[in-house]
Amino acid sequence: MLGAGGVLAEILGDTAVRVAPVDLAGARGMIAEVRISRALTGYRGRAAGDLDAVARAVVALSQLAHCPAVAEAEINPLLIGAEGEGRLALDALVIPSAQP
Fold it and tell me: Do the beta carbons of residue 5 and residue 76 sit within 8 Å?
């Protein structure tokens, strides 16, 4: 799932959901699907966010779906830099599965 961080994702219902793992095209589609992404495209003279870096982060996180030792994983929030500056996970949670 991809959406605005925190309660905004729930309140606004502004999320995109795919079955993991997703590829780069799928991640880009998820980004385009959420309304919050408009704020990251250079809205009102602000610098565009690094949406390619966000897409790569979605792909990388979704790869944990192949890891039997991981039950759940999330990044929240993900700080998005200006185009070309990348992104930074400010907080992440990984819940191990019951399997050894």
Answer: yes
